[in-house]
Write the structure tokens for this entry.
Amino acid sequence: MPPYPADIAPFCARRQRLLAAMEGGIALIPTHAPQHRNGDAQRRFRPDSDFWYLTGFDEPDALLVLAKGRSEGETLLFLQPRARDQEIWTGRRLGVERACEALGVDEAHSIAELDALLPKLLRGQDPLFWKTGARPDLDRTVLDLVAQLRTRVREGNPAPSRLIDPSPLLHEMRLKKEPVELAAMRKAAAISSAAHVAAMRATRPGVGEHEIEALVEYEFRRHGCNGPAYSTIAASGANATILHYIENSRTLAAGELMLLDAGAEWSWYAADITRTWPVSGRHSPAQRRVVEIVLEAQRRAIDRVRPGVNFQDAHDVAVRTLVEGLIELKLLTGSVDEAIATKAFRRFYMHRTGHWLGLDVHDAGHYFSGTTSGSAAGAAASGSARDGPNLLHRDLEPGMVVTVEPGLYFAEDDDTIPAEYRGIGVRIEDDVLVTKEGNEVLTAACPKSIREVEALIGTA
């Protein structure tokens, strides 16, 4: 990855959009400091997603300043200066001298000058957009400075009187993806799909979960990705019933299922794919029945990902389909409506059907639209209200990307169900873009039907 993007126009435009949305004041958007793994070893650096979205800059210890109406320039970047003795150890830096041209900011300064220049930047600016807790080491600097300025108001330089988290403004921008973002997500999806196929081909009894993990992440890096977008889940047998299993230390055994939840990160944008397949190459009758139910639930849920449809609808449709299947398998009793109303299905399906996807695998953006009159009670009854009756899920709009990931999980020690289902965990997940006409499955190249998957197992 270069230290700055080839095309800076999208980042410049985003900064201007945020400045317009601020309607005054000053915003401070930091990225992360270097993170130590242990001892004196550092982790590979990954920039803060909000900071990257506005700058395209992926070095640590930097801070973006957006000062609305500042005559000398509204966009400033504080970053690490060039320092040969440091670059020998940790790599080349962009440096202050090249930052304005490379990133399109009005001014660039060494991060060492922040303490001296920040008081001048904050004077007369109100509100201050700052997300407390994101950089605890900078919280004290910023908040102490504001407190000092407030004691000097008689000097004619008023301090910010309001402190506002910029996340709501910024995350609404991030929620609807631009063409350049979608290009990155399609690339991540294509590489991730190919990695899943490679894992299917390599699957056979005796292979280790860690080998599947290593193969998938090798494919990510081999094709130029930053690496995995999240910790790879390579879960065989009953491990697939553990939703966030990441130990990946077991050996695959004949007759089991293999669940792989893995996605690449391209230019910091994530893919998120889950597939489940038989280790021996053929599903048992019980495995086939479960997989067919999950596939049908996903098919119906994806059909509900379209403009103007409530975000909750895909989940409701998936739940209803899964419950119908569970009743048909005699794993639930009573009517479909009763099982949904009592949440009896949560024994076997305990998570949501999807989430936003983008720079973060669980991406930024509100899921709720606020208050409505007269419909809160109905929303609460249907399960579409969360955290109170006045919060209703929002409608989908073109440019949003969601995952659709229904599943069924049967604990290996659940002696209330037939033995043939115990220890089976199945999840099928795709990444779906809301388009003007309907939707586009970004991960459609990754096989998931029983016929396709069985044809691939162990063919490497």
User: Anything to note?
Assistant: Residues 9-173 form a domain with the Creatine Amidinohydrolase; Chain A, domain 1 fold (CATH 3.40.350.10). The first strand starts at residue 26 and ends at 30. The chain has a mean pLDDT of 93.
